[in-house]
């Protein structure tokens, strides 16, 4: 469902993107080319700051927002998802937040008030809250990263983890094409 927010903003969605019919895209949201938005995902840009303004939620080209993902923002702060990035099933990305290019965010992970650098991998059930992850960092499953985390203890992304992330992107870009073809059948 595509809908306005209370400020009257409507999403801007590239015609090549695939948005599942059960997903909700609300307000000041920009979705670029070849993006996949899966079933029951919610991308909502509707809160304003003290001056009545809001920044958009932007999803970069060739990225995928998988089933049940929630993307929202506090007080009109920006949320940016880079290009060729995967936000896996049931994750929460809550702004202010910036996720770089070629990033993989695993199942049930939570990002809040953070920056995740290009090429990072955040595995399943991890939390990144209130800190900036430099490019190419690998966050193991169930790890919590916060302002007091010693980032020197976080390892770098391996070639295998990068290849996994690239495979997920390829699979989801293929899904966009397949689902776009099917839209004309129903």
Automatic annotation (TrEMBL):
UniProt keyword list: Transferase
Keyword Iron: no
Pfam families linked to this entry: Hexapep
InterPro entries: CA_gamma_LbH, Gamma-CA, Hexapep, Trimer_LpxA-like_sf
Superkingdom per UniProt: Bacteria
Cited PANTHER family: CARBON DIOXIDE CONCENTRATING MECHANISM PROTEIN CCMM, CARBOXYSOME ASSEMBLY PROTEIN CCMM
Family membership noted in the UniProt record: Belongs to the gamma-class carbonic anhydrase family.
UniProt name for this protein: Transferase hexapeptide repeat containing protein
């Amino acid at each position: 469902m595509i809908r306005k927010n209370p400020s009257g903003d409507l999403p801007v969605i590239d015609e090549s993107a695939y948005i599942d019919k059960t997903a909700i895209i609300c307000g000041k949201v920009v979705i670029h080319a070849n993006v996949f938005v899966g079933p029951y995902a919610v991308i909502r840009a509707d809160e304003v700051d003290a001056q009545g303004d809001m920044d958009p939620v932007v999803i970069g080209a060739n990225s995928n927002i998988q089933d049940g993902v929630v993307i929202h923002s506090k007080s009109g702060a920006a949320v940016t998802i880079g290009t060729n990035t995967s936000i896996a099933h049931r994750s929460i990305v809550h702004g202010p937040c910036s996720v770089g290019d070629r990033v993989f965010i695993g199942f049930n992970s939570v990002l809040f008030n953070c920056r995740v650098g290009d090429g990072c991998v955040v595995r399943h059930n991890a939390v990144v809250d209130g800190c900036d992850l430099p490019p190419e960092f690998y966050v193991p499953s169930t790890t919590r990263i916060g302002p007091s985390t010693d980032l020197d203890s976080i390892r770098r992304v391996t070639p295998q983890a990068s290849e996994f992330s690239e495979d997920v992107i390829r699979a989801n870009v293929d899904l966009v094409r397949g689902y776009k073809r099917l839209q004309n059948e129903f």
